[in-house]
Amino acid sequence: MSAATIEIGLTDTHRLIPSKFSASGTVLSRLSENEAHLRELMELDSATNDRLLGEEGLLPGIGIHELVYGVRYAHVVNAAFTHAAPYGGRFNNHGRGAWYAGLERETSLAEVAFHKLRQLEEIDWHQEETGTYDDYLADFATEMQDLRPAKPGYKKYLRPAPIPDCYKDSQQLAANLMEEQSNGIIYPSVRRLGGTCLVCFRPALVYHVRQDARLELRLQAGQGFNAEDVREVKIR
Question: Whose CA, among 191, 203, 217, 229, lies 20 to 30 Å from 178?
Answer without folding.
Answer: 191
